[in-house]
Amino acid sequence: MPSKSSSRPTKGPKNTKADGSKKQRWSAAERAARGHGPRRGGGRPRSEVEATGPGRAPRSVDRWDDRRSTDRAGAGRRDDREERRPHRDERQERRPYRDDRDERRPERSERRDGDRGRADRFDRGDRRDDRFERRDRDDRFERRERDDRRDRFERRDRDDRFERRDRDDRFERRDRDDRFGRRDRDERRDERGGDDRDHHRRASRPAADQHGSRRFESRPHRFAERSRADDRRERREDRPEWQQLTGYEGGDADQMEWTPTAAAEVDPGTAVVVEGPGFADLGLPSALVNALAAQQITTPFPIQAATIPDALAGRDVLGRGQTGSGKTLGFGLPMLSRLAGGARGTTRGVVLVPTRELAMQVADVLSPLAGTLGLSVVLVAGGMAYGPQLKAFDRGVDVVVATPGRLIDLMDQGAADLTAVEITVLDEADHMADLGFLPDVRRVLDTVPAGGQRLLFSATLDRGVGTVVREYLDDPVTHEVDSGQATVSTMAHHVFQVKPAEKQSITAEVANREGRTVVFVRTQRGADRVASQLREAGVMAGALHGGLTQGARSRILGAFKAGTVPVLVATDVAARGIHVDEVSLVLQVDPPMGPKDYLHRAGRTARAGGEGQVVTLALPHQRREVARLVKQAGVKTMAVDVSADDERVYRATGARKPSRPAIEDRDYEALIAPPVKVRSSRRPGGRGQGGPRGRGPSRGGWSRSGRGRAHEGA
DNA sequence: AAAAAAT
């Protein structure tokens, strides 16, 4: 039989790609380390796949119905905490089509190439996923426990806009009650406190101890990360150790100049003049006080003065302070101070934040301060190399600043041990308590020992955190340092009523003003589109959203901070917490989803006592919605009807008619491309011209940096 | 709709 010699068995997993090359697969041991069972056979017979139509996944609605009924059937599932995330194979059983992914891949990439237009020319390498992969990503979420979230959105679509809020509240409450009823909750509490905890811990991290984190040396995807990391290697040596440790990609990682951020950078000129008690009077150790003084930070902001004493005393704290009012130090200083008293090398502090950029920023602020106390900080976030993060845990790290996904990843792998954590912080706590984040946050809070200190901070801390507070906080004290104002007094608000045909040119006029501007849009594609329209109009603008690779995100944000790209077109990924100096105007091209989003977006300007303007564009059909949002955000502003080339717009915002020629893609790329290497040493196998990664020269930033390198090396 | 993990 000729087929005897075939390397491919007729049954079982397919181990080669279409081109015959070997697939990168986790070994059995690696699968086991992740808690997966042995790999199963490859889904349904091919003929069946074709009958359904390749590449056509069943409509998500069907899958949802499927999931829901399954969940209802297994109503007690919540009781087994370690089983809360269904086993992978289990999930695949529920949704048999997923095993066909490998067969669909070729078609997907065809579609991608055809579908993506000019953006592809320069963006391909930086763009992590196209629409189709994004759909996949959504599938991933669906597989998890996101029923409630979807539920909510489906209903929301049908809802009348004006009733939306109330209904959402109602649904959230109902969902919570259904799923985490009181009895259930109490049991969960008991488990956390009891001896059971160790059992759960081990169960949720199977085989962790046998393997140790070394096993990840062979993880296939790390090679991809590493080749990108190659570009950074030399610079990395010059960076502080914690950045080397974390594989940090912020600002300087991709060699856009990185300026330390947030409160640590408050300009001494604008900082409050010394009056009243200083940080020392709040009970902070002198090492910290001196470190702060060295950064010209001498007088606590109100939120800091309010929260630090209670947090130092070990109490659970809910802190609400206006955007840009120094919340990071509000939780960071007391956390570090309290940890300074204990043994080093065990993870005792965790800070959870909703976005990677914010994680970097918080790590940036806390790391030097921690250093003065002999504490170490690690940044744990997705999109960055695993190695440094794993290494940090191997060596022992005191404080973890993390986005939830990667932290849970590392927990599951047994790399991150959070069982000795004493202080847990939720930054942007209301957002972290949102339906989208809650399951992940809950997992972390369930892992961390019960009874530890919990600090919840946000500019919009509202009842949305109620569940978290009830379940995880003990007799919390609340500090609201708002002076009753939703937004800071140095912020000016405008609502412009625009005609659809003129919206684009008005956007360009406003964005063309002097100074740094953040433009907010609703969707990732919208961000790409608006940014490219602005460049078309001669305004240097770049898009920032979660659909970009982390490297691309870092570069554009770095370019924005450096001022080379003065206009940042962003999704709400940049709405919260991100601090960039001297953003003088926030332009909302799409209205925010809710009043809280309005406040957070607006809060990118007028930070730390500075001034800023907030402009919201409203199309005719958005008029009422925007009026409501603005009012609920506590802002008193009347909408003004404006047209393109309107003197009033110019006067109010400093807008200018764009007059420069369109910005070529390659000129834009040059600004945000990975910077030219300075040293001349040539790395074998590194990224060079016509490099090993099969990318064409069409990716301009790439060939450009290649040329630059060649010059410098010569 | 966005965000957050990824072979």
Automatic annotation (TrEMBL):
The keyword Metal-binding belongs to this UniProt entry's keyword annotation: no
Bias-annotated ranges (Basic and acidic residues): 59-124, 182-198, 211-241
Record Pfam families: DEAD, Helicase_C
Family matches, as CDD domains: DEADc (cd00268), SF2_C_DEAD (cd18787)
Motif Q motif in this chain: 277-305
Biased composition (Gly residues): 686-699
Keywords: ATP-binding, Helicase, Hydrolase, Nucleotide-binding
One CC-aspect GO term: cytosol
Domain Helicase ATP-binding: 308-479
Region (Disordered): 1-124, 182-255, 652-714
GO molecular function terms listed in the Swiss-Prot or TrEMBL record: ATP binding; hydrolase activity; nucleic acid binding; RNA helicase activity
Ranges for domain Helicase C-terminal: 505-648
Biased composition (Basic residues): 34-43
Family: Belongs to the DEAD box helicase family.
PANTHER family, per the entry: ATP-DEPENDENT RNA HELICASE RHLE (PTHR47959:SF13), ATP-DEPENDENT RNA HELICASE RHLE-RELATED (PTHR47959)
Name of the protein: ATP-dependent helicase
